[in-house]
Structure formats: structure tokens, C-alpha cells
Amino acid sequence: MVQPRGRLGVLIAGLLPLLSAAATSEAASKGSGGPHAVSIARRPPREAPRTAWEQEFPGASRVRLVAARGGRVLLQSGYPSGPEGDQWTWRLHSVELESGKEHWRREASAWFAPLVDAGRLYLLQTSALLALDWGTGRKLWSTPAKGDLSHPLLARNGRVFYRERGGAVVAADGAGGHQLWGLAPPREFARFHPLAIASDCLYLQRTGAEGHYLAALDPATGTAVQEVRLERGEDLDYVVTALHWAPEQRRFFLQEVKTGAGIDFRSLRALRPDLTEVWRREHLGRFALAEGVLVCEAWKNVHNERQGLMALDAGNGRVLWERTEKGQEGHSVIGTLGNTVVIAQEHGKLRGLQPRTGREVWSLSVPFTHVRAAGDTLLVFSDGEAGKLARVSALTRP
After folding, report:
1. Total Cβ atoms within 10 A of residue 370
2. CB 153 within 8 A of CB 134
3. 59: left (phi > 0), else alpha (psi -120 to 50), else beta?
């Protein structure tokens, strides 16, 4: 027998008996399936969200989620009427998110901007601001208002803020509706656009001839606390589409769109609490934040052509992974469900992705018109056109 030489030879000689024993054990297990069978670890099966409840709305052509708070959601159903079907009757439904039980319903104006805060549901209409009891739907008060319904309501600490037609911002008392203060644009053609309340400030976009600004106001008085310029000049129509405050990251995430001369330029910025810029990425749309990662809709160029998905480290903006669309299949970022980011694709497919790697955790095929996330629940809406019933299904984690 040839003896091994050197350290490598000794190591190989020591491993041979172990490898031989393992091979013998595996062969025996394949033949007998006995107590020495080799166990291969497998990933647990991927489980898609399960349907918790489903509700139909006979006669309605559409149903939408308009507000959510404290385990309840507010749904709006629309019923076409008139000889041409161009007149609408609208109803509000307060529904328990876990079970689908309806707590109350009432007729509603055709258009309104809803918001729930401190046990009150605020509704902004073209001629009035009114408040309902969130628990019962009972009307609490109503006050005249020249509401601009293209902008959302904001509320905090017993105050509600809204924009009037003409561009002024108004603060009203949540308990009775009387006006606390109003802030008119400083000169002709200027306008205000309320965005968010965070860090004890009211944030809004101020637009005028000199450019576009992000301003922070004292909610109690309307006094300006801070202001930074976002964009110069009037060559492009510039709009801040959303301002999100992420407490864990201590960051604002600002979505902006510039349009003009046949282009549509989107970008995403991260700002510190003092509104200084941390990073900026171009050609990004809606996003969801989970586990410190922003999963964003990515666009190829300025002509509204989607490219796929891009995931960024929320702290430094570094790209973690990218995914390109196949053919014309679109990706829409819906929100989060548990620790997954939910993506809606065309042809009725929902997918849950692990945010840091982009790995698919679950997938589900279900017909839908649109999907909204509410806490740990996905609300899947189907319109009732062409003789179908409008319905909403609630999907929860398995």
C-alpha cells in the first residue's frame, strides 16, 4: 500500500474513511428508507395571502378605499344613474378590517377628500367642510368652505388643514370647524400645496414666479419656520406629488414630477429633518418602504415608459437590486404586507417580494381593478361594469 506523503496527503487519507462512510450511508438509505435515511433541508412552501372576507355591492359600478384608521376602513361605492348613466350616487361604508362587518353607511357627496383623525372623519366638499363621528357616522358639524378637492386634507392635534380654490391654506378647529388662521399666496399666480404634517410642522409646496419651494409652517399660527428651494424658474410645470416622513430613518422622501415640452421627468429625493438633501435618484415613481429598503417603480426615460423595479438603501440611496420588465408587463408598487413588498402586475397577478433581495416570497392570481394596502391587509377591488357586481376582497397574511 502506498503511504501518503506530505500534509496534503495526510489530510486526504484522513478524509477518505469519512467520505466512504457517508456514501455507504446514503446508498443504504436510498435502498431501505430506514432510520439512517439522509434528510435534505428544504425551504418551507411559499404561502400566498388568504382571503379573510369578501363583500359585494349590488348595483354599484365601483368601490374604492378612501380612509383607514383604528382597525376600520372607509369604502366609497358609486352607483350610476340618469338616462346616459353619467350621474352618480355615492355612499360611504365604515367596515371592520378584520371581519368585513359594516358598522354604518350614509349617502355622500360626489367628490370629497376624506381624513380620519382623533375620532372624527373630515370631508371636504366644494362648498363645505364637515365632520362625522368616526364610530357612528353621525354628523358633528359643518362649515362653509371653498374646498379645492384636488388636494388632500391634513389633521393633527385637533386642527384640520385644507386648501381653498385660489390657492390659500386654511387651518380649522377640529372640534367645531371655525377657522383658526388662513394663509393666502403672496402674489398673483402663486399657490400653496399642502403635503404632510411631521416633526410638529405643516409642510407645503409654495410655487411662484421665482421658483418652487418646500416650506415648513407652525401648525398653530401658520408662521413660516423654514423654507428651501426645490426648483428654479417656470420653464417646467413642477409638482411635489408626495412627501413621506419615515421616523425610523429620520428622513423625508419627496416624490416630484416635472412636465413640459412633451416630457415627464420623475425623481425621488431623501431629505434630512432640516430639509437638506441626502441623495436623489432620477426616473423613479411610487415606492414602498420596508426593512430600510425603498422598492420603487423605475422608468426608462421621460416619456412614461416603465422599465421595472429598483430597490434602494433608504439611508444612502445605493442600488441594492433592479428588475427589468418582460415585454409590456407593468409593475405597480402597492405597499407592504408583513415583511414583503406587494407588486401588482397586469393580467391579475400579485407578488410579494423580499425587499432587500427582490426574491419572490409568494404570488397570487386574482382578478382586480386596483389594489390598496391597509395595515396588514390587502384590499382587492373589482369594478362592476358589464353586468358584474362590484366587490372588495380582503387578503391577509397566511
Report:
1. 16
2. no
3. left
Distance CA 215, CA 207 (A): 10
Q: Which residue has the cell 412552501?
A: 45
SS3 label, residue 71: coil
Gap between the Cα atoms of 369 and 38, Å rounded = 48
Give the Cα separation of 178 and 165 in Å (integer). Answer: 18
Coil, strand or helix at 111: coil
Q: What residues does 350 pair with on adjacent strands?
A: 344, 364
Sign of CA dihedral 93, 94, 99, 101: negative
b/e sequence 220-259, b meaning 16+ C-beta within 10 Å: eebeeeeeeebbeeeebebbbeebbbeeebebbbbbbebe
Spatial CA neighbour of 170 closest among 222, 125, 208, 132: 222
**Closest of 136, 96, 139, 131 to residue 114, by C-alpha:** 131
Give the long-range contacts of residues 328-331, CB within 8 A, separation 24 or more.
Answer: 330/306, 331/297, 331/306
SS3 for 278?
strand
pLDDT, tens digit (0-9, with 9 covering 90-100), for 33-72: 333 222 233 344 457 899 999 999 988 888 989 889 889 9
Specify whether the CB–CB gap between 287 and 253 falls below 8 A. Answer: yes
- Secondary structure (DSSP) of 213-256: EEEEE-TTT--EEEEEEEEESSSSEEEEEEEEEETTTTEEEEEE
> CA 366 to CA 54: how far, in whole Å?
13
Distances from the Cα of 270 to the Cα of 169, 299, 314, 341, angstroms: 25, 18, 8, 20
pLDDT at 241: 87
pLDDT band of 301, cuts 50, 70, 90: low
Place of cell 421627468: 265
Segments in the chain forming alpha helices (H): 6-32
Rounded distance, CA 112 to CA 236, Å?
29
pTM comes to: 0.81
CB 76 within 8 A of CB 108: yes
Are 266 and 256 contacting, i.e. CB atoms less than 8 angstroms apart? Answer: yes
Name the CA radius of gyration of the chain, rounded: 28
